[in-house]
Write a structure and sequence with these properties.
Layout: H1 9-19, E1 23-28, E2 40-46, E3 49-53, H2 56-68, H3 71-75, H4 80-89
Antiparallel strand pairs: 1-2, 2-3
Helix pairs in contact: 1-2
Length: about 100
Amino acid sequence: METVKLYNKYNKSINLLIKWGYEVFISNINEKDEIYSNNFMWSAQKDGKIYIEKNPLRLLGLITLLKEYSPEEATEDFTEEDFDILTESYLLKSFKVE
């Protein structure tokens, strides 16, 4: 089996959001204006709605979830029973990255 690797996930995420019609912004949230990757927040805006996440990949994931589910459905918590069903549904096995 071949392991699929995707490099440059941030640029691909931003490009996809722009292709979907979102305006994408980055903001430095550090008051001292220091530049560290964890000081940035990414946002995407479309149709009067603003979505905010810590990086473009998470932003893409959030928007993708909300395209499929309502905000209530996308954020509902798992019950213990749901979690047991979920974990039983997947075969967990280790893999080696080459």
